C-alpha cells in the first residue's frame, strides 16, 4: 500500500484471492482493544464489506499478510497513519475516533493522492492542507432497489439481503444500526461490524452513514432485555434484545446464519411448514365407459346387409395389418357370397394403402419418379388445413425410398381442388410416361369442435359395397376412438365444468379448477415404429394428444364465454392409453379435487436464541394464530428424481449447488452456480454480476423435451477447461431441471409408451404453464426459481433450452394438425435445432435486436460444417415439402446460415413474466433453443444433446467476448455500476 487512499482497494484492505481482477476478500486485522467501542467502526466495516464480492467474518482475527489496524490513544489530534504497510489510528477520545471512522467510510472513491496520513480537523478529513471529500448523506427513502424486510426470514434469503418482488442489478443498503449506550462493548461492536459488513457486501449501492441516521429505510436496534430475541417491530424495523453478556453471541450467530437454500437453517422453518401443509387430493368424481368394438359393429352391419352376392366389400378399421388380414380371411369365409373383401386402415389410410397395396406393385415395375395427386381438403368451416391429406401421407416418400430404393426427392405431391378421389398415385417410366397405380377414397365423419362453431372431419371406419367398381352403399362406423371421444366431450367435460364452475377469482388462470384429471383408455389399436426417422403409427398417441390439448381448448373457450379471456390453467390432464388387442374399448375417468384455500400469509415475527446465543426457535404469525417452530438446518436431498441430475450432483464438488425452492409436489430444485471461488465464507452473486457478465441457462422447463437436462450437465463436464478461462470474465448459472413434477409425470407416462411425445407432461403437476405465475405469490415453487435467479444474479443473457416433437404430431379430432391454439404448425420437425429470439417492445428494442443478430451470427458459425447443419438442411427440406411450400404462414421459416432463427411474434410471444420483457433496461438478450427431442433415446438423443451444447457454447462464447466497464459512482451514496443492457460484439473467428 503506497498511499492511505488505497485502503478501499486490493492494494490496501482488500484482496484478489483468485486473481481475476475482482476484490474477493478482506486482508485486514482490526486489533480492537477491549474497552474501546467506537460506534463509527460499524460504518468503517460496512465500507470494507461493500468493496468486496466475498467475505469471511474474521477481520478481527490475526491473519498472515493482513494489514494490521491498530488504535493508540494520543493527546494530540485524531489521525490515521500508514506505517510499514499497517494502519495506526491515533485518537484523543472515543467520540472523535468514531467520527473519524465514519468519515473514512464515506470517503469519495477515485482519490489518487499520495499520502501516508489523514487527520480529523473540525469534523472534516484532511491530507496535509487539502480537505478530502466525503459522500454526503442523501435522503432517497424506500425504492424498488431497497431490500425490504417484512418478515425476519427476509434478512438472509436466496437473493442475499432483504426481499423484493422485482429483480434489479441495483440493491441499496440504507441502514441505521443503533446500540443502547449501556451495551456498547468491544465484543458486541465486533459482531455488529461483521453483521453490517455482510449486509454491505450483498449490496451494490450504499448510503452513509449507517449509524445515527433515524431516516434510514431499515432500522436495526440492539437493546437490553431479559430474554434474548430478534424481533420484527414492523416492516424494516428490527430489534435484537437480550442481556449484555449474551447479546454478542446472539449477534455472532445471526451475522453468520446461512439461508436454507445454501444448506443453512435460516428461513427453513417457513419452507418446512409450507411443505408440511400439502395434503392428498380427494377424488372429486369417477366415470366409466365401455362399448362394442368397431370390428364387432362392422361385422354386425355386414350381417344386416342384404344381397351381398358378387359384391366387393371395402372395410376401414383401426387395426394393425395382421389383424386386418385375419379379418379378411375369416369374414370372407363367413360371407361366401361376396366376390372380394379388403380391410384398410382407418388411421392414416392413405399411408397404409400406399405401403400395403401400391409399394408391392412397384417392386415389379420400373418407375423413375412418382406423383401423388391429393385432393384439397373441402370440409366446410373445418379446422383441417387445405393440405390435410398430404399431412396424412407423412412420411410416405421416405417409406417408399426404404422399400424400393427410389429417392424420396423423386416422389412429389400435387394438390388439386377438383380431384375426384382423395388420392391418385402415378408412376412415370423411363420415357416419363405416367401410369395410374391406384386411387383411394377415404371415409370421414363430421363433428362440431369444442368452440361450438367450427367442425372437424376425422377419418371414419366404414363398410362400403361396390358393384362393378361403383360405390353403391357406404355405412360409416365411428371408430372406437371417436365414440369414446364423443362421450368424453359430450358427457365428461360438461360434468367436469359443472362440478368446478363455482370457482374463485384467479382459478383457471394462476391456479387450477381441479388438481388432475386422469383418463385411462383401453383399446385395440395399431402401435408400431416405422423405422423412418423417429416416425411411428400410433392412433392412441393421437388420441392422447387430442384428449390433452382439446381439454385445454374446452376450458379456454369456457373462459372466453364467461370472463372474456381463456382459462389456460384448468388442471392437470393425464391421459394413460393402454393397448388391449381384440377386446372391447373401455375407459375410466377420475377427477381429483383442488382445494382452493387462500394462501396463509405467515410472517416470522421473532427468533429466539439458546443460552449460547445460537438460533433456537422462530415464531410465525398470520394475524389469526401464532406458531413456534424449532430451527434446524435444511438437508439437501439424498436423491434427485432425474437420474442424470442425481449422477452429476453425486460426482461434482467444484461448483456451488443451491436450492431456491421446492416444487409443488415437494421436490427440492437445485441450481448450479459456476463462478471463480475465492474460498471465502460468504459471497454476493449480485456483486459478482456487476464485475462480470452473467449468463443464466435453463433446462427441463417442459419435461417431455428430454434432451436439455442431459445436455446442460454434459455441457458442464465437457466445457470444464473452457470454463476455467471463461469464469474469469463470466458467471454461469444453470437450472438443470426446472420442472421436476412434470418429469415425475413423464416417467409414469413413458413406462407404457416410451417413445410418444407425451405433451401432457410438459407443464407442472396440475397442468399449469408455471412461467405465467412467475413474480406472483404462488404455491408453485417451480415458478419461483426463474425470478429468484434474476433477483440473485441479475443476468445479462438468458438461454432457455427447449424441444419440439421428434415425430409426426397429429390430432384427428382437432383438424389433424397440431392444436388450433398454436398459430403455426408443429405437425412435423422443422430442424434438428432452431432458435427463437425474444425481443422487448420499447426504447431498448434496437439494442436487443442488434444483440440477437450477433447471437444468431455466432450460433451459425458454431454450427457450420457440423452434423447439426446437415440435419437442419434435411429437416428443412421435409418441412418445405410437407408444409412450407403450400402454407408458408402456417409453416414459417426464418433462415440464418445453417439454422432457423425465429423473431416473428407468432413464434416468440412476449408476456410480463419474461425477463427481457420485464427488465429490458438491463437484460441484454433472451434466447430459446428447440431441438427435436420429444421423446427420444440413444443416438437421436445424443444428437439433440450435442445440438444444445453447441448452441449454448456459441452464446456463452458471444457473451465472453463482450466488454464491460465498471465504475464507482459517488454522486448519491456509493454505487458500483456498469452500462446495461450489455452490447454484444460480433467478432469474427
CATH fold title of the largest domain = Aminopeptidase
Number of helices: 22
User: CATH H level of the largest domain: which superfamily?
Assistant: Zn peptidases
Unreliable stretches (pLDDT < 50, length at least 5) are none
Query: Proportion of β residues?
Result: 25-35%
- How many structural domains can be distinguished in the coordinates? 4
Structure write-up:
The protein is of the alpha/beta class and 989 residues long. The protein has four domains: 1-135, no CATH class; 278-346 and 449-599, no CATH class; 354-442, 2-Layer Sandwich (Dihydrodipicolinate Reductase, domain 2), CATH 3.30.360; 656-978, Zn peptidases (Aminopeptidase, 3-Layer(aba) Sandwich). It is 28% helix and 25% strand. It contains 22 helices and 47 strands. The strands form eleven sheets. A nine-stranded mixed β-sheet has the order 36-37-40-39-41-45-42-44-43, with helices on both faces. Strand 18 (312-317), helix 7 and strand 19 (340-345) form a beta-alpha-beta unit. Helix 19 crosses helix 22. The chain is elongated and about 130 Å long. Pfam families: Peptidase_M14. One of its GO terms (molecular function) is zinc ion binding. Residues 687-761 form the Peptidase M14 domain. One of its GO terms (biological process) is proteolysis.
Amino acid at each position: 500500500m503506497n498511499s492511505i487512499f488505497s485502503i478501499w482497494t486490493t492494494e490496501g484492505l482488500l484482496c484478489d484471492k483468485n486473481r481475476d481482477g475482482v476484490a474477493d476478500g478482506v486482508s485486514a486485522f482490526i486489533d480492537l482493544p477491549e474497552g474501546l467501542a467506537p460506534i463509527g467502526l460499524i460504518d468503517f466495516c460496512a465500507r470494507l464489506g461493500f468493496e468486496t464480492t466475498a467475505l469471511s467474518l474474521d477481520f478481527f482475527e490475526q491473519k498472515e499478510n493482513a494489514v494490521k489496524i491498530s488504535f493508540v490513544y494520543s493527546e494530540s489530534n485524531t489521525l490515521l497513519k500508514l506505517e510499514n504497510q499497517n494502519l495506526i489510528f491515533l485518537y484523543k477520545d472515543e467520540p472523535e475516533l468514531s467520527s473519524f471512522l465514519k468519515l473514512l467510510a464515506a470517503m469519495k472513491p477515485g482519490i489518487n493522492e499520495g499520502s501516508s496520513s489523514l487527520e480529523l480537523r473540525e469534523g472534516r478529513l484532511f491530507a496535509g492542507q487539502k480537505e478530502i471529500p466525503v459522500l454526503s448523506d442523501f435522503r432517497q427513502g424506500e425504492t424498488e432497489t431497497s431490500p425490504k424486510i417484512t418478515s425476519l426470514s427476509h434478512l438472509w434469503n436466496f437473493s442475499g439481503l432483504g426481499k423484493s418482488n422485482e429483480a434489479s442489478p441495483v440493491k441499496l443498503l440504507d441502514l441505521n444500526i443503533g446500540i443502547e449506550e449501556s451495551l456498547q462493548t468491544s465484543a458486541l461492536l465486533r459482531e455488529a461490524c461483521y453483521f453490517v459488513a455482510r449486509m454491505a457486501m450483498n449490496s451494490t449501492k450504499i448510503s452513509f452513514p449507517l449509524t445515527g441516521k433515524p431516516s434510514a429505510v431499515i432500522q436495526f436496534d440492539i437493546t437490553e432485555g431479559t430474554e434474548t430475541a430478534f424481533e420484527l417491530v414492523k416492516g424494516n424495523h428490527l430489534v435484537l434484545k437480550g442481556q449484555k453478556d449474551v447479546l454478542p453471541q446472539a449477534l455472532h450467530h445471526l451475522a453468520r446464519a446461512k439461508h436454507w437454500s445454501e444448506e443453512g437453517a435460516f428461513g427453513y422453518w417457513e419452507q418446512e411448514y409450507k411443505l408440511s401443509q400439502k395434503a392428498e387430493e380427494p377424488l372429486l368424481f369417477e366415470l366409466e365407459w365401455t362399448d362394442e368394438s368397431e370390428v364387432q359393429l362392422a361385422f354386425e352391419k355386414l350381417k344386416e346387409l342384404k344381397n351381398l352376392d358378387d359384391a366387393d366389400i371395402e372395410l376401414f378399421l383401426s387395426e394393425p395389418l395382421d389383424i386386418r388380414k385375419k379379418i379378411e380371411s375369416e369374414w370372407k369365409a363367413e360371407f361366401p357370397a361376396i366376390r372380394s373383401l379388403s380391410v384398410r386402415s382407418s388411421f392414416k389410410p392413405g399411408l397404409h394403402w400406399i405401403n400395403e397395396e401400391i409399394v408391392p406393385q412397384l417392386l415389379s415395375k420400373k418407375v423413375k419418379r412418382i406423383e401423388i395427386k391429393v385432393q384439397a381438403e373441402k370440409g366446410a368451416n373445418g379446422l383441417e388445413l387445405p393440405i390435410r391429406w398430404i399431412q396424412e401421407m407423412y412420411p410416405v416418400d421416405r417409406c417408399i425410398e426404404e422399400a424400393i430404393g427410389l429417392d424420396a426427392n423423386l416422389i412429389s405431391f400435387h394438390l388439386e381442388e377438383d380431384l375426384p378421389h382423395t388420392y391418385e398415385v402415378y408412376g412415370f417410366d423411363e420415357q416419363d410416361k405416367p401410369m395410374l397405380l391406384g386411387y383411394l377414397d377415404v371415409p370421414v365423419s363430421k363433428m362440431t369442435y369444442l368452440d361450438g362453431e367450427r367442425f372437424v372431419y376425422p377419418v371414419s371406419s366404414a363398410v362400403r359395397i361396390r358393384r362393378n367398381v361403383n360405390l353403391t352403399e357406404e355405412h360409416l362406423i365411428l371408430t372406437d376412438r371417436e365414440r369414446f371421444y364423443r362421450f368424453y366431450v359430450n358427457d365428461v367435460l360438461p360434468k367436469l365444468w359443472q362440478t368446478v364452475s363455482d370457482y374463485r377469482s384467479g382459478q383457471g388462470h394462476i391456479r387450477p379448477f381441479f388438481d388432475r384429471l386422469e383418463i385411462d383408455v383401453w383399446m385395440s389399436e395399431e402401435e408400431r415404429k416405422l423405422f423412418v426417422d423417429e416416425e411411428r403409427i400410433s392412433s392412441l398417441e393421437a388420441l392422447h394428444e387430442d384428449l390433452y390439448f382439446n381439454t385445454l381448448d374446452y376450458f379456454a373457450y369456457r373462459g372466453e364465454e364467461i370472463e372474456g379471456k381463456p382459462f389456460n390453467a384448468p388442471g392437470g390432464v393425464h391421459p394413460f392409453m393402454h393397448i388391449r388387442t381384440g377386446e372391447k374399448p373401455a375407459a375410466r375417468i377420475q377427477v381429483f379435487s383442488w382445494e382452493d384455500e387462500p394462501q396463509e400469509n405467515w410472517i416470522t415475527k421473532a427468533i429466539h436464541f439458546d443460552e449460547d446465543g445460537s438460533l433456537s426457535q422462530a415464531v410465525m404469525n398470520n394475524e389469526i394464530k401464532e406458531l413456534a417452530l424449532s430451527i434446524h438446518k435444511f438437508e439437501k436431498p439424498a436423491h434427485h428424481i432425474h437420474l442424470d441430475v442425481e449422477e452429476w450432483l453425486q460426482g461434482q464438488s467444484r461448483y456451488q449447488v443451491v436450492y431456491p425452492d421446492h416444487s409443488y409436489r415437494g421436490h427440492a430444485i437445485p441450481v448450479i452456480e459456476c463462478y471463480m471461488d475465492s474460498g471465502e465464507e460468504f459471497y454476493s452473486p449480485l456483486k459478482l454480476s456487476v464485475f462480470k457478465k452473467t449468463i443464466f441457462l435453463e433446462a427441463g422447463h417442459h419435461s417431455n423435451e428430454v434432451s436439455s437436462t442431459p445436455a446442460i450437465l454434459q455441457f458442464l463436464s465437457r466445457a470444464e477447461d473452457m470454463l476455467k478461462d471463461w469464469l474469469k470474465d463470466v458467471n454461469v448459472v444453470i437450472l438443470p431441471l426446472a420442472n421436476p413434477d412434470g418429469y415425475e409425470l413423464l416417467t409414469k407416462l413413458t413406462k407404457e409408451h416410451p417413445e410418444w411425445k407425451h405433451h401432457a407432461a410438459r407443464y407442472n403437476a396440475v397442468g399449469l404453464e408455471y412461467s405465467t405465475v412467475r413474480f406472483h405469490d404462488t404455491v408453485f415453487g417451480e415458478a419461483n426459481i426463474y425470478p429468484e435467479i434474476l433477483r440473485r444474479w441479475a443476468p445479462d443473457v438468458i438461454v432457455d433450452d427447449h424441444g419440439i416433437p421428434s415425430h409426426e404430431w397429429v390430432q384427428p379430432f382437432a383438424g389433424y394438425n397440431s392444436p388450433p391454439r398454436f398459430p403455426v404448425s408443429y405437425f412435423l420437425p422443422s430442424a434438428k435445432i432452431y432458435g427463437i429470439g425474444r425481443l422487448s417492445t420499447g426504447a431498448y428494442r434496437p439494442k436487443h435486436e442488434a444483440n440477437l443478430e450477433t447471437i444468431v451470427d455466432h450460433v451459425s458459425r458454431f454450427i457450420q460444417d457440423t452434423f447439426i447443419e446437415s440435419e437442419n438442411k434435411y429437416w428443412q427440406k421435409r418441412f418445405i415439402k410437407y408444409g412450407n411450400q403450400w402454407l408458408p404462414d402456417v409453416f414459417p421459416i426464418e433462415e440464418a446460415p445453417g439454422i432457423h432463427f425465429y423473431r416473428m411474434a407468432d413464434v416468440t410471444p412476449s408476456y410480463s413474466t419474461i425477463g427481457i420483457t420485464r427488465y429490458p433496461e438491463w437484460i441484454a438478450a433472451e434466447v430459446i433453443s428447440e431441438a427435436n427431442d420429444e421423446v427420444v433415446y440413444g443416438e437421436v438423443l445424443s444428437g439433440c444433446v450435442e445440438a444444445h451444447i453447441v448452441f449454448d457454447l456459441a452464446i456463452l462464447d458471444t457473451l465472453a467476448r463482450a466488454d464491460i466497464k465498471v465504475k464507482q459512482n459517488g454522486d448519491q451514496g456509493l454505487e458500483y455500476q456498469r452500462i446495461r443492457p450489455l452490447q454484444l460484439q460480433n467478432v469474427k473467428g
